[in-house]
Design goal:
alpha/beta
Length: 272
C-alpha cells in the first residue's frame, strides 16, 4: 500500500472508482478487504490480476465515462472465478464499486492506514552497508515498517522508501531497548564487535520480554560458531542461542552479491 502519495495527487486531478473485496469464498487471488482504485487512464493497487481485474477495471471505467452510470454507485457485483472469466481458481468474490473524489481522501487514507497497521510488521535493520542498502530496496514494496539503525549517521542515503525511518545510534546496541514489541531484527553492521554487542542486547531483551520473534545475523557458519562460544561465555544458554538465525537467507540461493543476499533474506522474513 505504498501508493498513498500518488492517490492523493490523482484525486486532485479528477474522480475515481474505489473497488473493495467485500466477500471472498474458496480459492481466490486476494482476500476480503483488499482494495484498488481506478482512474480514467490509470489504476493503483490490485485485487489479483487476470481477467477478474480486467473486468473490474472495465466496470469502473464505464462508470467514470458514462455520466448516467455514476448515479448507480455504490454497487456490489459477484464474480465467479470459473470458465466465464477464464480463471480456474474455483472461488468467488463480491466487489463493491464506489465513486470517490478528493473529498473522500481522508476516509480512503484511513482505510489504507488500517490495512497497513494490520499487515505491516516492524523490522529493525542494524547496518547501512552494501547488503543493508540492497535490502532496503528489496523491502520497499513489502509489508514491513523498517527502522534502519547505524552508528554512523552519514551512512544513510538521502532518499529512502516511505516506510523506512533512519536512526543514528551510538552505541548502536542502545537502540534495542526501545524497539517496537514483536520487531523482527536483522544484524549486519560494519564490524563483528558491533554485531556481537547488538546480538547480546537482543538476546537480553528477548530473555526478559520474549518479544523479538526473529533475530537474524549475517555471516558464515564459522562466524556463528565463534559468536556462540562468546555468547556462552557471557551466560547465554544453548536455547537462547538457538533463537538466532545465522547464516540468514532462504536455503538454496548461493550468490554472495548484496542484491542476491537481500532477496534471500526478504524471502526468509516473509516465511517467518
Amino acid at each position: 500500500m505504498h501508493w498513498k502519495p500518488t492517490l492523493i495527487a490523482q484525486l486532485e486531478q479528477g474522480p475515481a472508482v474505489w473497488i473493495t473485496v467485500i466477500n471472498a469464498q474458496g480459492s481466490v487471488p486476494r482476500g476480503q478487504g483488499t482494495v484498488m482504485v481506478v482512474f480514467e487512464d490509470e489504476f493503483l493497487g490490485t485485487i489479483g490480476g487476470g481477467h477478474l481485474e480486467f473486468e473490474a477495471i472495465a466496470e469502473a471505467r464505464k462508470c467514470l465515462r458514462v455520466p448516467e452510470s455514476r448515479q448507480t454507485l455504490p454497487i456490489e457485483k459477484r464474480f465467479a472465478l470459473g470458465p466465464s472469466l477464464g480463471q480456474c481458481c474455483g472461488g468467488a468474490l463480491v466487489l463493491k464499486f464506489e465513486w470517490v473524489t478528493h473529498q473522500d481522501q481522508a476516509r480512503l487514507l484511513q482505510i489504507i492506514d488500517l490495512q497497513t497497521d494490520n499487515r505491516f510488521k516492524p523490522l529493525a535493520l542494524f547496518g547501512g552497508g552494501h547488503v543493508g542498502k540492497a535490502l532496503i530496496n528489496v523491502l520497499a514494496p513489502l509489508p514491513f515498517h523498517v527502522r534502519w539503525i547505524d552508528s554512523r549517521d552519514e551512512i544513510f542515503p538521502q532518499d529512502v522508501p516511505s516506510q523506512v525511518v533512519c536512526e543514528h545510534s551510538n552505541p548502536v546496541e542502545a537502540a534495542v531497548n526501545d524497539l517496537v514489541p514483536n520487531s523482527r531484527v536483522l544484524i549486519m553492521s560494519f564490524s563483528h564487535a558491533e554485531d556481537l554487542d547488538i546480538l547480546m542486547a537482543c538476546l537480553w531483551r528477548h530473555r526478559q520480554h520474549q518479544d523479538l520473534p526473529f533475530i537474524g545475523l549475517i555471516g558464515s557458519a564459522t562466524k556463528w560458531a565463534t559468536f556462540k562460544r562468546r555468547l556462552a561465555e557471557r551466560g547465554f544458554s544453548e536455547a537462547e542461542c538457538a533463537h538466532v538465525t545465522c547464516p540468514i537467507g532462504v536455503l538454496g540461493i548461493e550468490g554472495k552479491e548484496p542484491e542476491v543476499i537481500a532477496v534471500a533474506v526478504a524471502a526468509q522474513l516473509l516465511q517467518a
